[in-house]
Each structure stands twice: as C-alpha cells, then as structure tokens.
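Second opinion, please. Please look over this fold, written as tokens:

===
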Amino acid sequence: MNIGVTREAEGLERRVALTPSVARQLVDQKHTVWVEKGAGERAMIPDEEYIRAGAQIAYTQPEVIRRSELVVQVSAPAPEQLEHFSKDTVVMAFCHLAVKARHLVDLLLDRSVTAIGYEIIEADDGRLPVLAAISEIAGQLTIPLAMHLLRSSAGGRGILLGGSPGLPPAHVVILGAGAVGASAARAAVASGARVTVLDIDTDRLRDLIFHLPHVATGLADPDSIAGAVASADVVIGAVLVAGHKSPQVVTQPMVESMRRGSVIIDAAIDQGGCVETSRPTTLAEPSFIRHGVVHYCVPNLTADISRSASMALAQAVLPFLLHIAQHGPDGAFRASPALRRGAYTHRGACVRRSLADTLGLPCEPLAEEPRP
C-alpha cells in the first residue's frame, strides 16, 4: 500500500505523524511510504533520516496525497487538502470531528474518504491506546506549565508549586483521572504540590490512590467541583467523553470564585474544553487572563515537545497502520474492533453514532464480525 505523510498545515503544529523508525517498519513490510519534503523538520527530523529508512520524498503535499491510499497526519485534514483526496482514500489523524465545522464532515462524506480518529480508537477494555500515548505526555507537561504560569511575570499568584520550608505548597486540583489526569497527578506529586483529583469513576480513583497514596480524591459532582476549584491555585481540566464535546464542568461562577492569579490549564480544549471561560489559544499566545485567573488553552500543547510527541504517536499508531496496509480498510475493520470503533466516516457514510447524533446525520454503523 502507498502510505503518505504530510507536513502539518497549521503553522504552530510541529509534530509529524510518522517517524523514520516507523516508516522503516512499513517499508520492510513491502509498503511504500511517501513523505512530504520537510514534514519532520519542525520535530528535528530531517528528510535524510526518512530516506535512510527507505521512504520516498515528494516535493508537494498534493503529490503525497494523490499517490497515497492511506494518508497519516497529526491534525484533521483541512478542506483545501481534501480537494486532492481520491475516492476511498483513508486518512488517520486527531480528527475531533465533534467540534469541527459541519462543512469538513460534509466534504469527507462527499469525497467518500474514510476518516479514522486517533482519539476514538478504542480497545475492548475501553482504553484509548493512541490517545493515551499523547495524553500521558500532555499530563506530564501541565505541571511545568503550571509552575511557569504561577510566576508573577506570567500574571500568576507568584507562588512556588512545591512550597518551601515554612511555605505551604500550592493546591493542584485535577478534574479527571484518565491518562491526562493520572499523568498530571504523578508529576504534581513529584513536584511537592498538594493534589486533589476528582472523577466520576471510583475504579479510576481507586487505582490512582494505589499508585499515589498521598493524593486526595473525590467524586466529581457540581458541589465538590465548586469547592475544590475555589480552593485551588491550579486547576487542570482533563475531562474526556470519547468522541463527544467535553462537558463544561467548571462554570463561570466557579472561575469567579478563584483567587486572583490562580491558573487554569484546560487540557480538554481540543474537544471544546471543560471550563466555561476557556477559548482555544496557540503556542504563540498560549494564555489569557479572565476574571483575574490565568487560562492556558492550547489544543496541541504537546506540539511544543514535538520530537517526543511524534515518536510516541507514531509508535502507538503503527499496529493500526499495519492492519490497514495489510488488509485494506474493510479487512482491517473486520480484523480490529478497536480500529472499527475509531472510524468516523467510510465509503460516503457517517459510521460513528455520536457524530451522527451531534450533526443530525444518518448513521450506518460498521457491521461487527460474527463471533465463532
């Protein structure tokens, strides 16, 4: 199969979807990998490394797309990219279609593109293996970001996250105990902060306490969230409902109750955000102050550690790429239930129920394989 890797269109998106080591494994399986010139340079991966891995370099993005049966990206394809997609081309990316413009979904359907979202590839046990690889990095990154944003020069309260002799540590409240939340909790504990984690899933909280016994936990409901947020120096929003827009569990009155110079990092902003006062920002201008609270709301925050994030993403995606490259999309969906759950559109139909319900589209779910 011809597999294409594009240079990300967004100016501040520095990640690349495939690394040379993963490209080599695909080439070793007799597939052809086309890489747009400069695709990896913002992740410090030169074209020469792809060439040594056996990949082919193409000089324009349309050439990569037109040559490829499977296009692998980080971000969802832009409407202008879709003009170059052939019928029944497969694209894999962080699509987040529940919060994208309806026009993009219509184009995917009109051009009969099979769109697979990394964020909804789901294993039988409910794990999201590709999303988790990036989420763990994102969670770890939130804590040094919080340290920076608490500084007076950043508009913060001017306090140390971990405290000091005679000075109490900052209070970090994490909403959600999934991959982002658990990773953030580990990093926050290591920094010396006082940490509270709220979630609706007691099993997740039980697992978190087992590994981090000094973390305080609680069931997430409007009252407990309001109380925790009001006492927080840092709030990390890590609420995820896979394939859906994130619920706004932190309301504007809750934000107004926070102390001046406190910090909110809305790590759910790529799915619409879980804080009512959030709005998407960029790595160029990552934060803003509202109601005296510093907000950090960068959807692609791991793009700032582009090489590590690219390596984690490529390794997590590889098993699913091999399924598609070996069996084609229909065979891959039959062979891999996790991949089947990751499809948004296929052969001109919306196959994801949550997306169909959000946009008012008819849904044609992919058939499950009968059990032997």
About this structure: The first strand starts at residue 2 and ends at 5. DSSP finds 13 helices and 15 strands in the chain. Residues 137 and 181 are 11 Å apart (CA to CA). The radius of gyration is 21 Å.
